[in-house]
């Protein structure tokens, strides 16, 4: 997979050299290119922003540097044999970045990231490239960062670990929280490693039992508990077919019951507890 990032802070992308993404680069599984947007400015001050039409606070990133940079980056990629680019534009007004979207992006051969600063990029840039390739405007959460570089790191890491051969253990991401289809989209429960006792704290006995069925059931119950506590919306969205008899028993203990439409809802008194 080829990744291009155009930014006014190339140094912000240094983490792409370490850990999982860095190793994937070193092994040739990821071909990463970071570009300084200011290379495509032609005035003395390397200006990339200007005041917004219609007034208001803040500055807006100009069309020309972005257009010239993206044209050049795309031409270079095509010249070196890349194909099928998709533009990824981090923005708090984009669609939520989810594991499902990470899977979708991991199936593309070439991602070009356009992280903005200030109040974002002149809209005409996105509209222009949307006529040439898929454009993903993505938000990494309901908060506002100063720039899109951190979002690029988030998306890149989530995507890279899904690429074939990048994770040491291919099974590792199957049970992840949010893994599509896995555990009915429940959050993953707690995990433990050696030693078995630390500062007077033991690990749950079942994990030492060697009984795979009981361990799987315990993990599932913990996932249900954690999801009910932290992300009840995930349980509300699940089709009841996702839950077996034991799941239903645990959900009932946690204060959930099936509604006529098959979904589960939490009894109000259980929420207050
Ligand atoms: C200060 S923000 C601009 C916020 C803009 N005024 C708005 O409310 O949509 C500058 C840049 O940071 C990035 N950014 C900020 N929050 C983000 C988020 N939650 N997800 C993805 N990118 C974000 C985007 O690239 C954005 O254009």
From TrEMBL:
Enzyme class: transferase
UniProt GO molecular function: tRNA (guanine(37)-N1)-methyltransferase activity
Keywords carried by this UniProt record: Cytoplasm, Methyltransferase, S-adenosyl-L-methionine, Transferase, tRNA processing
Record: residues binding S-adenosyl-L-methionine: 140-145
Protein's cellular compartments: Cytoplasm
Subunit structure: Homodimer.
Function: Specifically methylates guanosine-37 in various tRNAs.
PANTHER family reported in the protein's UniProt record: TRNA (GUANINE-N(1)-)-METHYLTRANSFERASE (PTHR46417:SF1)
Protein family: Belongs to the RNA methyltransferase TrmD family.
Name by which UniProt lists this protein: tRNA (guanine-N(1)-)-methyltransferase
Organism this protein belongs to: Streptomyces fructofermentans
Source lineage: Bacteria, Bacillati, Actinomycetota, Actinomycetes, Kitasatosporales
